[in-house]
């Protein structure tokens, strides 16, 4: 038996705003950041669990404080028992009778729980010597549903139906795992589309995306309609008619504004419209989706929890489910969301980018393919070519496809020298004149 | 001109769990707490603005850290300019391009903004020498709508319609202010109903509530159906047929469980059923409301923002709007919610209790009566007889009615000696053997 010996946190920030990487209509100047947690044990293997919450700068310290607040709930506990019942750990943390007041199940406290839960999954995968997607994909349907809290879901999806959904996919798992290893998983790129890039950079990067084998690119929109039309025309001209173009408004609009604006852009053959309005506006998403059909609405990176996803699916508010590795309370809650998406037959196309989101979320998409959704058709994982060099197991994208990771773990681990250099505000990248 | 000279925060906790005050089906052991902020200026008047976020113990330090994160956004700024445009301050804090990632508009970061905004309102009311409800009630309709951010609301309520709602109530304001001063505002009590109290204490406190002039009491339910039936029968027996009894499940159930459980309790003539399920489950609330009608559903204390209230009202998910003084981003957002409730003709019956919630939220209910909703019919503010002695202007309840405050300010100020004594973990109430 080993115990949790330390929960170490750090505030890591990368000064991406200097280059307008990641700029969009609502986030003009993000500094991609990670509220980072390392779980150490007293086991002889010296394996650590790593996890983080992605933020965009200010407030990353608040997110770290929230992870710190969880320390007393996990420190000193039996590692093997926790790893063997990560569904139990999830319930315990999420339903803590005092901490839940800070959400409940949303925002800073909920994401902090996600970081700790994900770090435990990282540790478990390293102990098993497998990539996280494989650990999950080899669980039995019963083991998978044990990870999920069906509270507040049962009017739409209960344990019995979730088991049925998973058992339906039991056949063919081995074949799909083999497919993943040989073919990888489809990726799309947002690299060309940041609002802060000028037309020349947009055209160059869009052209490079096609050369690199991507078949879908995404452009940020929503600041200025004329700019959006010009940029979409330019991108369409560069990529030709066969490449899909999605747009992302990052919550810029109300319902009527969204519909009006999107109709002005419809001629550019849009793969989807992402975050047209507040992630909380379930009915607003449904109204927009109905009025812009057949153009599809996509959302998820800011959807707070499984209860919100449940409702978005109930009302047809999203036709593309964009799970995020660190918005909800970790792997367990994302499994609940994958199950909901499978029930409604809606494809899961994860949000990624930022720092480390590609590294982690690919495991969930690959698990979805093997064990839940069972298909790659219409599925694609966002890819942005930023900051991967800081990870011990960086994503690999080849000819527009994520290569299935083979290294043990969840992908979340940042290399030690980067953790030292980018520590805010006292790491050398911040204290030396930045 | 004066500037913001200091933003001081403190972690205040009261060990209410020792007596099971505040115990319910989801919160068995709350320690009522305040993440507290004091805004100091360099003005000669030495007036301070006080505000807080109510929490129930663990995590109060995280909430304090979130308020601290706002310090750089307000320190050193022109007080008069800020006070003259609190709508502008609200937008600036809520839409901060980096901090909003932590919500957006929900949870720890959003509540922290509420504390700062409310502290500025406290300061403004003290400078005007008036209670907050009066400051708000004397604003013109145009000044009131300037305080509100209509982003994500305009499909249901825009500025023009909000102005019309307010202008409809312009006549009679003076008379309603006079009524408030002579008659006060209806209160109800939750003091008898905590789950941790035994039958004898429940019966005694229910009897005392009637003697004290209350006409509505509330009981916590949802842990055990047989217990609920026994306790409701006992309470009904003590108070007689003319006193209303509401029940509160504190989010215990899923949709089907809620309907089944409530039907088992329907014979006790329920005033409303509060928080039957997740505060995020808008469609769930609507389904429950439809299936238990004519019993009314009430919710709000955990509803994260105006966008969620908008939808609850759109779908008939709540027949009683329970605003909370510190859940959303302060006075401004609560005004948006009052306007939404007025549009849908749904009565506002604030959540209170905890520490300081009664003191602050009464101002919003009274403003609603004077300027927005325009009626006391079916309106009532929760009252719990805890911890009022720690406030410089404690609520007064007389014969079941809140007495309209006449002292300047918002009611949020905790007396200095209590702030010293209950500071966690180093105040004498915590460091001396507790």
Protein model, in words:
- 2 copies of one chain form a homodimer.
- Chain A has 434 residues and is α/β, with parallel strands linked by helices.
- In chain A, 42% of the residues lie in helices and 15% in strands.
- Chain A contains 18 helices and 12 strands.
- In chain A, the strands form 2 sheets. In chain A, strands 4, 5, 6, 7, 8, 9, 10, 11 and 12 form a 9-stranded mixed sheet that branches. In chain A, strands 1-2-3 form a 3-stranded antiparallel sheet.
Question: Which features would summarize this protein structure in a list?
Answer:
18 helices, 9-stranded mixed β-sheet, alpha/beta, 434 residues, globular, homodimer, 3-stranded antiparallel β-sheet, TIM Barrel
């Amino acid at each position: 038996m080993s115990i949790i010996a330390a929960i170490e946190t750090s505030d890591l920030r990368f000064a991406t705003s200097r280059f307008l990487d990641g700029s969009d209509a609502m986030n003009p100047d993000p500094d991609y950041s990670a509220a980072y947690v390392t779980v150490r044990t007293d086991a002889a293997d010296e394996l650590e669990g790593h996890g983080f919450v992605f933020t965009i700068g200010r407030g990353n310290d608040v997110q770290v404080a929230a992870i710190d607040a969880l320390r007393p709930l996990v420190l000193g506990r039996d590692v093997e028992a926790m790893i063997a019942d990560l569904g139990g750990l999830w319930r315990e943390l999420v339903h803590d009778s005092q901490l839940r007041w800070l959400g409940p199940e949303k925002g800073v406290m909920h994401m902090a729980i996600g970081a700790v839960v994900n770090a435990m999954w990282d540790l478990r995968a390293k102990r098993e010597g497998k990539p996280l997607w494989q650990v999950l994909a080899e669980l039995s349907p019963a083991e998978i549903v044990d990870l999920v809290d069906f509270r507040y879901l049962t009017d739409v999806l209960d344990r019995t139906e979730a088991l049925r959904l998973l058992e339906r996919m039991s056949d063919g798992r081995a074949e799909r795992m083999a497919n993943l290893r040989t073919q990888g998983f489809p990726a799309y790129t947002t690299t060309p589309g940041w609002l802060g890039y000028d037309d020349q950079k947009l055209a160059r990067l869009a052209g490079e995306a096609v050369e690199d084998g991507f078949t879908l690119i995404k452009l940020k929109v929503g600041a200025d309609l004329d700019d959006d039309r010009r940029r979409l025309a330019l991108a369409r001209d560069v990529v030709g008619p066969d490449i899909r173009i999605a747009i992302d408004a990052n919550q810029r609009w109300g319902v009527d504004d969204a519909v009006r604006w999107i109709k002005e852009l419809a001629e550019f053959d849009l793969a989807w419209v992402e975050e047209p309005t507040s992630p909380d506006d379930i009915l607003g998403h449904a109204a927009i989706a109905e009025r812009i059909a057949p153009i599809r609405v996509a959302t998820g990176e800011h959807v707070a929890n499984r209860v919100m996803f449940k409702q978005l699916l109930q009302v047809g508010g999203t036709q593309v489910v964009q799970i995020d590795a660190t918005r909800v309370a970790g792997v367990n809650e994302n499994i609940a969301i994958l199950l909901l998406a499978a029930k409604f037959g809606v494809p899961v196309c994860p949000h990624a980018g930022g720092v480390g989101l590609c590294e982690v979320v690919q495991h969930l998409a690959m698990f979805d393919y093997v064990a839940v959704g069972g298909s790659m058709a219409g599925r694609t994982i966002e890819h942005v070519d930023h900051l991967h060099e800081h990870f011990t197991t960086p994503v690999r994208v080849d000819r527009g496809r994520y290569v299935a990771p083979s290294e043990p773990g969840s992908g979340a681990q940042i290399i030690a020298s980067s953790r030292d250099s980018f520590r805010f505000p006292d790491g050398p990248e911040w204290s030396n004149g930045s």
